[in-house]
Amino acid sequence: TCAALARVSGDELPVPLVQGGTRTYANFDYAASAPALAQVTDRIQRLLPYYASVHRGAGYASRISTECYEAARGSVARFLDAADDQVVVFTRNTTDSLNLLASCVPGDTVVLDIEHHANFLPWTRHGRRVVRAADTVAETIRLLVAELCSKPAALLAVTGASNVTGEVLPLERLADIAHQCGARILVDAAQLAPHRRISLRESGIDYLAFSGHKLYAPFGSGVLVGRRDWLDRAEPYLAGGGAVRAVSTEGAEWAPAPQRHEAGSPNVLGAAAIAAACDALAAIDPDELAAHERLLADRLRDGLCAIPGVETLRIWSDSPDSVGIVAFTVAGFAPGHVAAYLSAEHAIGVRDGRFCAHPLLARLGLDAALRASIGLGTTSADIDRLVDAVATLVHRGPSWNYARTDGLWNP
Ligand code: PMP
């Protein structure tokens, strides 16, 4: 089934090379944005002729659009095995989802210092509580327990999988700990959801966020799924049409979630795209997916580590699990130059920089690194191509440096 699902857009993309000619693109940047699955493209194409205003019109196209939009919540809820009191709110992306939740949390949030900025700044900008992760998962959990017990907290916000190293924390255990300390747990699943099946019901996760564009659906839509009570009690995230039951010159009677936090005309195509991706991923055997990915990720790690001067990064010495994301450095080469070389000479796309996780990069003692991330379209031939390209560069020596030409540096 993995092979059947590997039909992602961009598979045949020709990329010009500096040495002349073109080569098909080898995408090692799934963690930034994953190309759309064929099932997603199909569903959008079928819906496109019917897009019309949702919840507002009695016309045929409006009814189709409304049905698709509401059915999309069902696909997401089924994909995540959401509990009955958990609602699906459509947002723009994970960042939006986490900012929305931050506006609803009735108390302090505890967060680790290894997070993507999207799961860090929405909490810390309100003066909330940061725990410095230790070198082992076991000790990090002990520090989290100490922080949660020392002073009441409403929420523990953790990443499902690190966007830098791919490492996965034991989420069920963290959910238990948060609950024992009287807090709830949010999981930033931007990187976990594309790689692992998550059951909210079984894991005890209260809130979860992810982005469509990392889950094989295009940009512009994301979800926040979570327990209704906080969402219903909070002020609407945006004020406007669709978020209300009734308005008079005296005030507004706000609608309950999810409509309460979805003011304005919603992104129907974005929601339908996410739903199509969820349905497609739900059809894959999770064990098969994990095994397929582990095989490729191990091949990548082993191949890179065998090259002199290449080091892969990790946060914890005892992390039990990781998804297909490998961050690495090449001694003597600036990460930006390695990324530019891989693109220019080999048509390989990787991410370089600080991965929107500046505190984590600082902990690792780095200004920048490289990140290769794999997904459903990745093959073992792609892995070998990347490993061979890095080995070729190292063999040439550090005098080979490519300047970045995209004007970006170290985001
Ligand atoms: N959390 C994690 C772990 C991520 O990797 C990312 C994207 N790199 C985000 C949050 C933010 O996602 P978005 O930009 O789609 O809001």
From TrEMBL:
The keyword Lyase applies. Residues 27-386 form the Aminotransferase class V domain. Signal peptide: none annotated. Keywords: Lyase, Pyridoxal phosphate. This is Selenocysteine lyase/cysteine desulfurase. One of its GO terms (molecular function) is lyase activity. Coiled coil: none annotated. Transmembrane segments: none annotated. PANTHER family: CYSTEINE DESULFURASE (PTHR43586), CYSTEINE DESULFURASE 1, CHLOROPLASTIC (PTHR43586:SF8). It catalyses: (sulfur carrier)-H + L-cysteine = (sulfur carrier)-SH + L-alanine. Its cofactor is pyridoxal 5'-phosphate. Belongs to the class-V pyridoxal-phosphate-dependent aminotransferase family. Csd subfamily. It holds the Pfam family Aminotran_5. InterPro entries: Aminotrans_V_dom, Aminotrans_V_PyrdxlP_BS, PyrdxlP-dep_Trfase, PyrdxlP-dep_Trfase_major, PyrdxlP-dep_Trfase_small.
